[in-house]
Amino acid sequence: ASEINPGCSGQVIVDLCSVVKELVENSLDAGATSVDVRFKNQGLESIEVQDNGDGISPQNYETLALKHHTSKLATYSDLTTLQTFGFRGEALSSLCALSHFSVTTCMAADAPKGTKLDFEVSGKLKGTSVVAAQKGTTVSVENLFNNLPVRRRELERNIKREWSRVIGVLGQYACIQTGVKFSVSQQAGKGKKTSLFSTKGNKTTRENIVNVFGAKTLTALVPMDLKLKLEPTSGPSQRWSTQEDGGQKDIRIVGHISRPASGEGRTTPDRQMFFVNARPCGLPQVAKAFNEVYKAYNGSQSPFIFANIELDTHLYDVNVSPDKRTIMLHDQTRMLENLKEALVFLFDSQDY
Ligand code: ADP
Ligand code: MG
Questions:
Q1: Please, which pLDDT band fits residue 241 given cuts at 50, 70 and 90?
Q2: Which sequence ranges form a coiled-coil region, renumbered to this chain (predicted)?
């Protein structure tokens, strides 16, 4: 079974990127089909995430931002088949402690009014007020880290790098989530709000990619659908040999990769995106395998890669880091060997 420990707590909010990630994941967990992310001064002033999801039930108002409050786990056993992004109940409580934080929410589609919730630093509900709102939830984070001068200074100093990470990660969610309209905008000072990208609720990841990265990607990208077969290891770590079907397990890697010399290769890091069961995550070893095989075929360029690894939830651990970004694939060495073979096959094929 996967080793997920709900009690293992850590800091989930370590930088701007983790704020954005936690808020967007909450919106997706709430079933949103529209997620609007608005920044003021690249998030230094404020980050607002508005969704059209289920909203928050009044019975959860009091406890919403208390540490370890979560509405997402019915029972402990759910942890092995985790479907939601969140399960720890830490993001909102951390944000209360680290920013000026408020939530506006509305559950009914026909109600023109919602409730604004204000919280104390401790996460205790300070007060509620009735405001105009549409169905869904808007979370507002202002002056992140203002009460932690060292961290605030560090954020300001690194804002350029942080900002590109934030946009990169938003692009990943926007591309992988089909059927969800994402829009991302930024306002500098008192200037005009500028849209950075928006997706249209597309049915395919390909259309999402075109919305985020531009029409040029349309001709540059080739669909990829790699199927890998794994057998249980015979080594000491037979972590999934207890699976009912004991024998072979499939891994599918679905996505898009750029054609050689398509001009879409010269990558900035945001042009190589990896997901495990639609969860954006850094998989440096997998990226390395892709780049190695690609280079052997296509010279020095690195490809644009959009790769979603679909596999059984028992074949990886998601909780090795508090922000859930590092995912440990079981039997990774063997999987990488298989992946390289499959890529050679793809690059040799006529479609490519
Ligand atoms: P977690 O996501 O691990 O449950 P969070 O601290 O991120 O913990 O959120 C706490 C709870 O607040 C969630 O379990 C959910 O009930 C509620 N919540 C947060 N954001 C939203 C949202 N955008 N829409 C609806 N409910 C939300
Ligand atoms: Mg959450």
A1: very low
A2: none
The residue extents of the domains of the chain are: 16-206, 216-348
Rounded to whole angstroms, how far apart are CA atoms 304 and 291? 10
Residue 318 has pLDDT above 80, yes or no: no
Tell which residue, 254, 51, 42, 78, has the closest CA to residue 165. 42
> How many Å lie between the centroid of ligand 2 and the Cα of residue 84?
9
pLDDT in tens, 281-309: 888 899 999 999 998 887 767 889 999 99
Nearest CA, atom 18, ligand 1 = 26
Q: How far apart are CA 126 and CA 64, in angstroms?
A: 12
Domain 16-206 CATH superfamily: Histidine kinase-like ATPase, C-terminal domain (3.30.565.10)
pTM of the model: 0.89
The response to whether residue 16 sits with its C-beta less than 6 Å from ligand 1 reads no
Instruction: Report in angstroms the alpha-carbon separations of 134 from 30, 212, 297.
Output: 15, 26, 52
Is the CB of 270 inside a 6 Å radius of any atom of ligand 1? no
Task: Work out the average pLDDT over 65-79.
Answer: 71
State which H helix or E strand residue 33 sits in: none
Cβ-count burial 1-38 (b if 16+ within 10 Å, e if not):
ebebeeeeeeebbebbbbbbbbbbbbbbbbebebbbbb
SS (H, E, C) 277-298: CCEECECHHHHHHHHHHHHHHH
22 lines ligand 1 (CB under 6 A): yes
d(CA 237, CA 343) in angstroms, rounded, equals 27
Looking at residue 100, its amino acid is: H
State ipTM.
Answer: 0.99
What is d(CA 217, CA 209) in angstroms, rounded to the nearest whole number? 7
Q: How far apart are CA 308 and CA 333, in angstroms?
A: 18
At the topology level of CATH, where does 216-348 sit?
Ribosomal Protein S5; domain 2 (3.30.230)
